[in-house]
Write a structure and sequence with these properties.
By secondary structure, the chain is an alpha+beta fold. It is built from 7 helices and 14 strands. The strands form 3 sheets. A 9-stranded antiparallel sheet has the order 3-4-6-5-10-11-9-8-7, with helices on both faces. The longest helix has 21 residues. The protein is globular, with a radius of gyration of 21 Å. It starts with 10 loop residues before the first strand and ends with a helix.
Amino acid sequence: MEPFDPTIHPHRRYNPLTNTHILVSPHRTKRPWLGQTEPAEPSNLPQYDPTCYLCPGNTRAGGQVNEMYTSTMVFENDYAAVLPPPGPVTPPAAHPLLTAESIQGGCDVICFHPRHDLSLPTLSLSDVENIVDEWTRVYMRRGSEPGIEYVQIFENKGAMMGCSNPHPHSQVWSLSTVPTLPAKELASLHDYASTTHVRPGITTGPGGHACLLCEYVHHELSVPEEEGRVVITNEHFVALVPWWAYWPFEIMVLPHKRHISSLVHFTVDEKHAFADIMSRVTKRYDNIFSCSFAYAMGVHQRPLPPRRDDDGMYVQDADDIAHLHVHFEPPLLRSASVRKFLAGFEVMAEPQRDLTAEQAAKRLRNCSEVHYLLAAEQ
């Protein structure tokens, strides 16, 4: 029997954050494609679009008029997925298998910049820092509201990810319960901390307990580059393709020098480094296929910001087990027009991918950090 080779032999990989598996089928990367292709994302957008609901001074779909903003702008979503409290009480379940719970909260839109033609990879580093500041302010504000148990920051970029407007923006949804995926991750982080002994030389979580993601990032940084999954690093953060990645060019961004529980725990240098790596990751994304690269991005951190004591210091609690990280989940697979689909086996059995995480990381490492549009002008 030939020895196992992860670059050619099918195998399953375990995701310790969600306690799930993914089937990896690297021998299928040369499979011919005669399926659906996607239209290219426009790269010649105007700086201002009079028909855009998010451009400065324009009227939104709900009739509200945008301010003439010059940096970021925040407003409550005119078509929010959840509504503010108080909400109605759900009636008793007709059957124990048919339960429902009432959900309240709020949905905010954060415009990144007044320019209609820019996006995260083409914004200046100072503009990206402004976005991080705005995310932090909304997280703090919404997370301190009565009845809110979780705040999710996310961005849908590109029409194929369901983005309804190309103007650069993200969203923040605040809910009266912790949603399924972050709840799974937090449970895994708690379980790891309570059952795992701390190994020497590895950063720990709160109370000196073991942290799943501190341990994971320590290992990834120890793997030789050509064999590993690290794409880029800076002084405080690393961007890598996770061992258990599902999407073809999935990336996770996380701190590697210390355990950081939320955006509010950043030092000034860490905030700058976070903005830097977010900018560099998205530039590499656009440069893979020389297009505006679609993705879903989300920040996972403490469900709510920490409270302060009488001296203004953050009070440590059980939620500090959260290890701040960012998920980038992009659908493009082979080119700017061929995306990955959730097909029969993945819907009915478990996630599956062809390109290995190591192959994806190498492709991303080989991408330039000079945006392809800027390179074309030089």
